[in-house]
Amino acid sequence: MCRWFAMLSEEETLLSDVLLRPRHSLVKMIDSHFLPNIHKQFQASDTGSPNPLSNLDGFGVAYYTGKASEFNVDSEDICVLPALYKTVRPPLNDRNLQSLCENTASKAVVAHGTGLTPVVETNNHPFVWGRHVFCHNGVVQDFESIRLELLHLCSPTARAHILGTTDSEHVAALFFTHLNPLGPWLKQYSTDELQAALRTTILDLQRLIDADGQKSNGHSALNFLVSDGEQMIATRFAHPVGREPPSLYWSSTAGPTLSSKYVDHPDAPVENTSTKLKPKSEHGKHIIIASEPTTYRAEEWNLIEANHMVAVGMDLEVHISPV
Fold this sequence. Notes:
With 323 residues, this protein is an alpha+beta fold. The protein is built from 8 helices and 14 strands.
């Protein structure tokens, strides 16, 4: 099963601080789970859990810098587009990823570890659509049986944007069809527009799955996330209702615990012996949405209720509502 980590912040965050440094960072969730308020900690052989099969078949990270706009001064249509790095190597052994993360800071980052997917870079999340990134943790029930009908719901522009074979990227095409069937998705949409498109996408998936004549006894896990670098929308959802979706948490306080510029450490309390570290109170406003907490402080994390949607606007305020 996949995992993701997404963060929007008023101040830049070093990618290695949030993706590599913590003992339970995204690239290390293959070994154990940390799930306060939902389960006890358990090892990766967690048969029957909503967070099963913690293998890692690929990794991707998207981050926003805005640097391209500084060099395209004559363009009237320039917008901030995400930089993207994808790899099929195990991320803990990827020296290129390590170098990138240790030397890159951003106010917006979305990273994703892919599981149980044919191992090619085009299948790795996040998927970039214009200024937006999209990722998924879960599975669309009976995807192969409903694939053609799903594609028929997508606009020609969105269908042409599909590069891989995953259910997730096909769902992204459906979402961006509802957002704007003509593309190229460079415009910034409101959180209301993003939420409406994602709700309609989930309704379409439920309808297709329920109408499938070859329906199995499985279920769909539809944890989705979309961001434009300034806003985020995420869902924690399972179909049929009553099944437990994969875990998903949000935090507005874990940022300074993760950052090496501030007092504290993501793994355990530390005694402050440096006068160069900043007090945690000075950290800028931020929001993190992650499959599992990445700091030892469970109180920093809020479990998102099943079948609910989280919307984060440009003011970095969190709004949660039923899907």
